[in-house]
C-alpha cells in the first residue's frame, strides 16, 4: 500500500485550447518537459490543475492523459478534492481504476466540520482506497487548517501516507517535521510553499510540490539534488533564482488564480510548451503588458534569449 514519494512533484498545470477544450498535445509536451527536467512525480488535479473548474468528464480526461503520458516513469498522484466524504470516495475509485499511484484529499468543505468529522473523513477515505491517501492542507481554500497532531496520528496508524502542505504556515510545518522525525518518519512531507523550499528542506521536508516547477522543473530538481548532497550554498542559490522567476506572478489588474496559474500558463506558452495561455471560465488569460512582463522575467532568469 505505502510507496514513499519524495523529491520534486510539481502540481501539473492543465492546458486548454482557445475553445476551452483539454489540450492533450500540449499536456504531453508539458509532461515530457517535467520528466526530462528530472522530477520525481506528478501531482494532477490539484489547485494548479484546475480541479475545481473541472467537470467529472474533464477530470477523467486529465487523469487518463497523465497516466498515459507518464508511462510509469514517475508516480502519479491524483487530487480527489470535493466537498464531502462520499463524493471523494467516488473520485478515489475512479482515479484508482485509471491507474494512479496515490490520491490526495483535503478536509471536507462547504459544510464545515469539527476535527472529529475531519478525522473520520480521512479514515473512511483510507478504508475505501486501494492506493495510499495523502492529506492536502490548504486552509485558504477549504477553511480548515489540519492540525499536526491529527496528521501525525493518522500517519502513525497508516491512514495517511503523506501531506502536501500548502498552508503557508511555516511554523506549523516545522513543528510537524520535528514531530514526524521523532515518531520515526511515518509521513512523507512535501511543501507547496515554492519560494521558501530551502527553508522547508532545512526544517525536514521530504520534497516540494512547486507550481512554479511547471515552468522550471530543472531548477527545483537541481535544488533537491543539492539538498541531498548537503550543498546548502547551492540550495540557496537555486532558491534565489527561483524567487526571481516567481516574479512572473506580479501582473497588473489580475489577482489570485488568474495571476498565479495565469502567469504559469503564459510562461509555458512563451516557452513553446503550450499552444495557448487560455484559462478556465470565468477567468481571462493574461494579455498585453502582462504577457510582456512574464516574457521579461523569463529573459532575466535565462529561460528565454
TrEMBL record:
Residues annotated for pyruvate binding in this entry: 209
Transmembrane segments: none
Active-site residues, as the UniProt record annotates them: 136 (proton donor/acceptor), 164 (schiff-base intermediate with substrate)
UniProt protein name: Dihydrodipicolinate synthetase family
An example molecular function term from Gene Ontology annotations: 4-hydroxy-tetrahydrodipicolinate synthase activity
EC number, as in UniProt: 4.3.3.7
InterPro entries: Aldolase_TIM, DapA-like, Schiff_base-form_aldolases_AS
Organism: Mobiluncus mulieris ATCC 35239
Keywords on record: Lyase, Schiff base
GO biological process: small molecule metabolic process
